[in-house]
Design a protein that fits this description.
By secondary structure, the chain is of the alpha+beta class. The chain has helices at about 40-50, 55-60, 105, and strands spanning about 10, 20-25, 30-35, 70-75, 80-85, 110-115. The chain has a four-stranded antiparallel β-sheet with strand order 2-3-5-4. The chain has a two-stranded antiparallel sheet with strand order 1-6.
């Protein structure tokens, strides 16, 4: 039986957001961006309360007090997060010079979303 239009299902953020990315923010920080197609999508995800500092702390194994930036930016329909890098860029043992692969845990966050 197909879900009704008012049914809500857990949906990965990668299916809701227009952009989920990570990038280098200097030798000691990584920035994560979640950008939404519309204000409605942004507001619905924000209202769900799923994306929190505590969740980011858990996903990235960083204490909440070490998170440099965490915020919902209404003017651009985006969430911005800045974290300390586990190792300095280019240091021995550092595995992602450009921090381009660090967004993957964000993509898999499930948000309650209307069934298609």
């Amino acid at each position: 039986m197909a879900p009704s239009s008012n049914q809500v299902v857990p949906t990965p953020l990668r299916e809701i957001a227009k952009v989920v990315r990570s990038k280098n923010a200097g030798p000691f920080e990584i920035t994560l961006d979640i950008i939404f197609k519309s204000r409605e999508d942004f507001d619905a995800v924000k209202k769900s309360g799923v994306i929190t500092k505590e969740l980011i702390s858990e996903l990235y194994n960083v204490p909440t007090q070490a998170i440099i930036t965490f915020g919902f930016f209404d003017l651009v329909n985006a969430v911005k997060i800045t974290l300390p890098r586990p190792r300095a860029q280019g240091a021995i043992g550092e595995t992602d010079m450009h921090a381009a692969q660090q967004h993957v845990p964000l993509q898999e966050i499930c948000v309650p979303w209307p069934a298609q």
